[in-house]
UniProtKB/TrEMBL annotation:
Matches recorded under Pfam families: SBP_bac_1
Protein name from the UniProt record: Sugar ABC transporter substrate-binding protein
PROSITE patterns assigned to the protein according to its UniProt record, in alphabetical order: PROKAR_LIPOPROTEIN
InterPro entries xref list: Bact_solute-bd_prot1, SBP
Xref: PANTHER family: ARABINOSE-BINDING PROTEIN-RELATED (PTHR43649), DIACETYLCHITOBIOSE BINDING PROTEIN DASA (PTHR43649:SF12)
Amino acid sequence: MRPRTRSRPAVLTALLAVIGLALTGCAGAGTFGLPEGTRIVTIAIVSNPQMEDAIELSPRFEAENPGITVRFVSLSENEARAKITASVATGGDEFDAVMISNYETPQWARNGWLVDLDPLMDATPGYDRDDFTPTIRGALSGPDGHMYSVPFYGESAFLMYRKDLFEQAGLTMPAKPTWDQVAQFADRLTDREQGRGGICLRGKPGWGEVMAPVDAMINSYGGRWFDDRWNAQLTSPEVRKAVNFYVDLVRRDGQAGAAGSGFSECGNQFSQGNTAMWFDATVAAGLLEDPAQSNVAGKVGYAPAPTGVDGLSSGWLYSWALAIPRTTADKGPEQVDATWKFLSWMTSKPYQQMVGEELGWTSVPPGARQSTYRIPEYVAASKAYAPQTIAAINAADQDRPTRDPVPYTGLQFVGIPEFQDLGTRVSQQISAAIAGQQTADEALDQAQQYAETVGESYQQSGGDR
């Protein structure tokens, strides 16, 4: 995989951006050394590869908009979630725009923490909000149906596998694999002498790390976090079966150091040829098919997210998106306008074209816009995985995550404010089980206690918080 570590100049830029936060508490501050009247837009962004591409290309925007300077605060996923949430929830004004997801957007819109983006989109010729993938557009909308964040990319989940290794072993990937079949394949393909695991699965603590695939697997086994009366269900037979399966699979056939592996670490393992399968986000495919970044480009097959019982899928729905906190509006309409100019540039149709032409078509952020899948160059470059990606995103229904009724939304998360803390604490227990420090059942016994506290608070408030 093409190294995404920062060069010394990039590190210096990031440090200056962080230092600049102390100088940019209000519009017009922190402009030392810049032309008079320059407006600084400070953006908290997740340090994933596609976002780093946006940082690399941002001088193009500044050249087209000489009165605006963009400063990025690039953070790891767990750190970004914590810092952005703390800032927006407490009314901090250090960020003019933030990268959030379909987990935060509806909740924060309901709380009045975000700027309604519908009027800004309506006033932007050619932006074409209707071009957004429908499931993603709906997931980033508030209770009023207006969009409060705009998608940079969208994803679901699927199974990536080495076609060459399957062929060598005489194995055939079914059109719709089950988790039991995946486990059998992993057993056959694990080769510790060659340093190869049969499958890579996340184990790193974090509600957005190990809990994403674990939650999806729980759904596929008919499990749920709470029943329709907010009774915690993490020790139900369905959840126990799913989590034991996950822990046993990754311990038996997974990658070395699994308890510390997240999306990025599994991406490195798979792209370097150290694992035969990988179940994770569809957005990974573009990285795997880039020969400059991946040793397995052209050797990867893509199958739908494996199913558990009764054909239930373990897919999910997620979007990294950009939003404007309400505190930016307090700085004045000029600051909102400058911020939106960059956000609309970074999430536009022309941006997709520019990424493809400048950085390669496999680097185009997927899933957000339907028109992306009509660009001939992108269609040709992504033919191995694009149909599966968009099909999975279109099929995802976060309002009906599992077999039985639940009082929450979300496929790989529970769409309530408490989940950031609850999911993180449960993830720590599961990660400890993957590390061999306790059994999966012991992890779930403790997780049940955490969930009961949250469920009881909803019961006491009549189910509405």
